[in-house]
Amino acid sequence: MRTRSNSGVRLDYYQRVVHKLILDHQQPVTGLFPASPHNDHAWIRDNLYCILAVWGLSMAFKKIADQDEDRAKTYELEQSCVKLMRGLLMAMMQQKDKVEKFKSTQHPHDSLHAKYSSITGRIVVKDNEWGHLQIDAISLYLLILAQMTASGLQIVFSLDEVAFIQNLVFYIESAYCTPDYGIWERGDKTNHGLPELNASSIGMAKAALEAMNELDLFGARGGPSSVIHVLADEAQKCQAVLQSMLPRESNSKELDSGLLSIISYPAFAVDDPQLITKTRDTIVSKLQGKYGCKRFLRDGHRTPREDPSRLYYEPWELRMFENIECEWPLFFCYLILDYCFQGDKVNLTEYMQKLEKIMIRKDDGIKLVPELYSVPGDKAHLEQIEPGSQERIPLGRCPFIWAQSLYILGKLLQEGFLAVGELDPLNRRLCSEKKPDVVVQIVILAEDNEIRDKLLEYDLHVQTISEVAPIEVQPARVLSHLYTYLGRNKKLGLSGRKSRDVGILSTSKLYSLNERIFAFTPQNFDYEEYYMTRDPALLASTFTANVAFLGMSWKQMLGRPTITLLATQYLLDQGKIPMAMITTMKKLKSGYINGTRVTLGNLGDFLSTSAITNLSFLGSQEEGYPDKLNPQVQSYLEEHLLRSFSSRLSVLARPPAVRHARALRRRMSVRGAIKKTRSINVDSDTLGMEGEYVGSHLLERKPSWLEVEPGRSPSPEDAKKRAFTKGTSTTSLGITTPTIEISKESTPPPPKEEGTVKNVLLRNRTISESQNIYAEQETDELIAMLRETESLDEQGDILQYLVDTHGLEFNTGMQENGKHVTVKDLLKVLYEKACSQKLWGLVRHTAGMLGKRVEDLAKAVTDLLVRQKQITVGMPPNNEHTIIAPLPENELRQLIHVAYGDDESTAMLTQELLVYLAMFIRTEPQLFLEMLRLRVGLIIQVMATELSRTLSCDGEEASEHLLNLSPFEMKNLLHHILSGKEFAINSANSLIDIKEKFAKNKVGRGNFSIVSNKSNRYTKKSQILLEGQGLQGTIDEAPITEPDRQGQWLRRRRLDGALNRVPRDFYQRVWAVLEKCQGLVIQGKVLQPNLTQEMTSGELKFALAVETVLNSIPQPEYRQLVVEALMVLTLVVEYKAVNHLGGTITVEHLVHKANQIFLEDQTRCSGDATLCCAKEGAGAGAGGAGAAGALVCGGAAGVCQLLYDSAPSGRFGTMTYLARAVAALLAERLPAHEPVECAIT
């Protein structure tokens, strides 16, 4: 017999170790591993990690097979792997009903179990007795199944099993928005059983989805029916959320060593090398000790101070575990594998030595990895004082097979028995390597010859739909319907894919089906659904964003992406192709668009270079005809090929006879019915208030209090005359600032004009009230008017009234093609007309009344939430509703409509803004840095304020403008506000045509008051007026000096306050302040110091707690000064100026103290404030506020407007005054006799 080579001897040693420590415990019937000799429960995750060493060893033997026995050993080890993988598969298949249910509910109680009996494979605890929802465990199963199948093992035997695996893919598809219990089975770290979104689960799911895509589960022997399909967009969403979370693990865990499994072996889920390094370094610096790494900060598991009699912790207890958390050698094993894959021998050796030092040697000489090392009870206090100083003792299972298995893999790699590629046959480890640039292929098709010829005029050669045959072009919703057939299986009772969402990555592939080839147009270009697709400029910008997104996200797919666009009649603007479209198409011809490489061509030319997916799953597999199309699919496709575009009502179309001499009195009475529903306010007296402005008894136009000469009652007619005769409005919102809290005393009653302002704070208009107005109108007269009037606005008002009084389904008595026409049908026609004439205010309103949904609202909200941004809708401070978890579409729409009451336009606008915010967070996440909560109501108000500032018009006109912006302009305005850029509205081109359109109908629209002669605006004396003052006739005139600088810091603070933006590391710093005082009081709400006991400084839950208190401040600029005051306090703590700040600190006192010092300075050097707050006799102590509490200059919350408008730095800067205020506070609190050290930096 030949002598054994050295490598053979060494491998025989490892084989004995693996046999003794791992395979000896494998249950012969199920193939599963029990947790320990005394506990027969088999955890999915632990079992998978256990078997990795066996799989690795089998591949090592395969290479050196110098004797037949070695081949036999290889086979035996491989079959152990197959046995385990099939044991887990059988256990999960017994719960197939759960998989089916979970696809629609995503409820923790409907999830697959996390552990099974290793003896029978049955369940061991009930659904509600354990945190079973652990997406990372199911994902790890799919990932390892894919890797083992790719290495040549045959694990899946039948097509029914393939269908089950396909449904497991759907099970983990929505990992990016499904909170689960995570790798440690606890969810929130207080262990009260609250699931949360975990980065480690999302990363594992992303890896599994990518590994499973287009994988043939029958290996080399399979055919099209054994291939798994994954929608690339789902993996991409996981990727995006993961990137936004790392190095954070979840809301309650700011960091977790479990992330090592995501950034390196086995998942390799992160593509960005810097993010991988950052995460690894953070874990090593914050969690690594001598004996391994802590799982996460303040982890009480097995520490001497944990109360073993109960599972959960009290929030205040968590502080006790600081610095004495157990250390797990397991994470050294992950780091060793990480350095093996990087080829970093130095670190590999270092960590291998660290690990072997703390391993425990048994009698037979085998070294074992223990589960964890804990601090002995009597040494806990010493360890807490000086972390890392005490010896620890091993606790828990020994060997901990999960870690032991990874250790053996590390040794096999270190000694060269395995190459890294063998452990990763799918090459996941290369995902962070640099790839060549993606070339995006673009095909433009014309709906018919007419459009093709129009494009030809611009030298754009395109084909029509009929010319690209045999390739068929369909909208994305057809693809989403076809995907519902994927994974269906009658025997197992599985219904296929539930989600109807197909993203741009999926529609950028071509699909083959038997002999046919399909191309799909992107989902966000589906014309039937939403009005935003009617704006050519928005479509063009969405399109360029899509191209850029494809350039970044098209990974791990064979072939190039192809975007197919359809130029339809819908896009024409009065028979012409819009310029926005033409310029974009011209850019495409250049080969680059916004830095992404593109190529424009015909579908036929791209067939050889595109990514093509086979839709083989549409065959009648279960009937035994795999090559024949499923009859349901067949009929669906046929029906879709025949569908014509649209059938329209012609009720409102009438010969264009112009009748001006109608009785105007009758018309007046309906006018403004739409405007009556508005709830956006910019007027200085109520920014941020839930005000309801109903106009006069004619519902004409609300007079602004800011325009009334002193001592006169405003009447709507005068106001109207004045508004349109004087070239500029006398108000400029840069100066008249909102004071929000209106209490009964502080606002003198408005002049008693009959019904001028009806019920300022009553929301729902009651029907009876409308009835007084329309008492003399008969319904049929209204309908006659409806047919006669030319103005769409007027039609809108009449229909609004009909809906208010009779409801949508009211039969109008008209006939069309023998059918009765309801109000709803008329609204639809009006909507179509408004869309084609681009009357966006009317479009938004009718869309709201028809209950149209904005594109993928639920998806947009989810996109924001999963990136750790909470959302509030509704107008602050009374009506804000916070959304903290993803909701289904209909519930969201319901919530938004409830938040805005009758105001359909603003409800629609909110949906629209949510979609834009989601677009921005996908493409420019840096805009959202340091913002935790997006308050859409406040953002809308700030947008209106900005418009009123740039157009110098009053609040109502500004909100009218806002609602009439085209979707593209709306998106740009939002972008400007988010990025804090200065902007001016270009009155010359974008809105000038609107001026002409509406010159006929001045009252109804706000689009004609754009002031082009700017000089005029600033030379007038500005009248600064406050709520009550105009009525007694005291108006202060303050000359406006250099126009550009004034108001800039006020605007900046207002924007930052409305967007909830805070300085970097603000919340961590506030945490440090809380440690040094007995609480911070803001708006009467207290931030208790015990929050530092419950939460770590970097924890998201802590940040949200602070932010909730800050959000109780209604005025954005005041909130921003409070944030600045907190920053000054943090500096006191950081520079250790004092040991303790004493009792509770009321932050607003600091701001008011700073204001007082500011006014004293102003009086001393007779600055601008002497005209308002620092005036003689104004009572500087009270900040110039009388009992009424309103300031002359309109500053919010009793702080002088000029202080808000000071830069933070400099001699007269806000920081200077706040620092002086803090110094004054400390002077009161420190004992007088102690000398104060004064370090000047």
Please name the defining characteristics of this protein.
1241 residues, alpha/beta, 5-stranded mixed β-sheet, 31 strands, 6-hairpin_glycosidase_sf, 6hp_glycosidase-like_sf, glycogen metabolism, carbohydrate metabolism, cell membrane
Description:
Residues 8-937 form the GH15-like domain. Phosphorylase b kinase catalyzes the phosphorylation of serine in certain substrates, including troponin I. It is a lipid-anchor. Residues 707-734 are annotated as: Disordered. Belongs to the phosphorylase b kinase regulatory chain family. Helix 4 packs parallel to helix 6, helix 7 (199-212) runs antiparallel to helix 8 and helix 40 (1066-1075) crosses helix 43. Strand 20 and strand 21 form a beta hairpin. Helix content is 43%, strand content 9%. Strands 9, 10, 16, 17 and 18 form a five-stranded mixed beta sheet that branches. Strands 11-15-14-19 form a four-stranded mixed beta sheet. The chain starts with 5 loop residues before the first helix and ends in a 12-residue tail after the last helix. The chain is built from 46 helices and 31 strands. The protein is α/β, with parallel strands linked by helices. Residues 644-668, 684-773, 987-1044 and 1179-1189 have low confidence and may be disordered.
